[in-house]
Amino acid sequence: MDSKTRYQILFNKINQYNSGEKGITRIAYTNEEQTCTHAFMRMCKVENLDIRMDQCGNVIARREGRMKELPPVVMGSHLDTVYQGGQYDGVVGVTAALEVIKRLNEKSIVTDHPIEIISFACEESSRFGVSTVGSKAMAGLIDKEKYRYLKDRDGITMEKAFSLCALDFNSIDEASRVNEEFKAFFELHVEQGPVLKNNNKKIGIVTGIAAPVRFQLKIIGKASHSGTTPMNMRQDALLGAAEIALELEKAAKRELEYETVATVGVIDIHSGAMNVVPGEVEIKIDIRSTSMESRQRVVNHLFESILAVKRNRQVEIVSEEISSEEPILLSSGLMDTLKNICIEKDLSFQLMQSGAGHDAMNMTKLCRVGLIFVPSEDGLSHHPDEYTELDDILNGIDVLEDVVLHYSKLE
To answer: Which stretches are transmembrane (predicted)?
Structure first.
């Protein structure tokens, strides 16, 4: 069986585990996700890998090297999905890693360094509102008491979800591998955006993972009758919010060089009605970049706009910072190796940042990290129609195989 056919069968086997009728629903720590995870463990067993599940539910499958004491070269991603998600997000990285192992076994290649596959638990935030739980646990970044009582839409706590999977939440700290040494970590992932497809590139070599700063604004004007309040006498909270949103867009567009983005993703009108001038509006803002300086310039313009709207529209605005994270810059040395591999394979590529978070960002706490993107049709992700050509995935696997072989040799 050729590699293409073999990989397609593997990919299809994983995606048969699904609790939904539309798209793929395989939510973390549910029966479907756990059944899929154990099926993946059996697939790894067939390839003679040593397999274990840690205290957070991460699967670690190890192929020993010639020298067992050397730090492993690691590949991985995740198998859980969002509600009504697609087939590719996360799954491509896990199945690609197993295909690399299949190729090495087929060629009877013995590496100097051990090689590991990690299928991380609970990468998506869909169930409990927190993401990359498995890789956070491995990197020693879990706030156990904060996470313990987080609830899903059915009121089930994370601690209870663990127990239903025969996992002990109290032992989650034992999933940490901060005292171990790793050679490098690589994650292959679909881009989840339109850049590679629009630029006709086959491979994205990620330079950094953007970090968001998020704000909630409450704009308080004065509700009044839409028919009897003259336009020059209104304190329209919605128009104030709209003005801020447009100014935010302008500020982000000035930062195109740094690929900084800004989004007003939520807008709520308090007691809204067609015949009432909006008196109170809440908006939620997400600003992200790999450049803290660029991000801060957008933030500064946001607050300048807030002052201008308060003054010009005679409204009150209350702002709250919800969260602020630091961007992650990836290993330049690994990027150079990936570039050379793409050149050798005559694969077009581009350097790019990731606007979405990945398990790779937490693994930077443990070792050097390389993140490889393959194109997404129409930039769709977290959607039943997300799609990546099989040949594009195979290009990514070819690159992943070469880079893993490169770093698994004794230097």
So the answer is: none
**pLDDT-above-70 percentage for the chain:** 100
- The response to whether 38 counts as a known ligand-binding position is no
> In this predicted structure, what is the pLDDT of residue 61?
98
Is 383 marked as a binding-site residue?
A: no
* Radius of gyration (C-alpha) of the chain in whole angstroms: 24
Burial of 145 (0-12, 13-18, 19+ CB in 10 A): exposed
Indicate the residue type of 273: A
* pLDDT at site 220: 98
6-48 per-position pLDDT tens digit: 999 999 999 999 997 899 999 999 999 999 999 999 999 999 9
Consult the annotation and say whether 214 binds a ligand: yes
Residue 98 belongs to domain with CATH number: 3.40.630.10
Phi-psi region of 47 (alpha: psi -120 to 50; beta: other; left: phi over 0): alpha
Does residue 275 have a known ligand-binding role? yes
Per-residue model confidence as pLDDT tens digits over 108-157 = 999 999 999 999 999 999 999 889 999 999 999 998 998 999 999 999 99
The answer on whether 78 is annotated among ligand-binding residues is yes
Are 327 and 258 spatial neighbours (Cβ–Cβ below 8 Å)? Answer: no
Residue ending a domain, choose from 302, 324, 346? 324
Which pTM value belongs to this model? 0.88
User: How far is the C-alpha of 367 from the C-alpha of 228, rounded, in Å?
Assistant: 65
| Residue 406 annotated as part of some ligand binding site | no
Structural domain boundaries, residue 280: 211-324
One-letter amino acid at 176 equals S
> Average pLDDT, whole number, for the chain?
96
The dihedral through the CA atoms of 226, 230, 235, 239 has a sign that is positive
Known binding residue 124? Answer is yes
Q: Which of 275, 309, 324 is the last residue of a domain?
A: 324
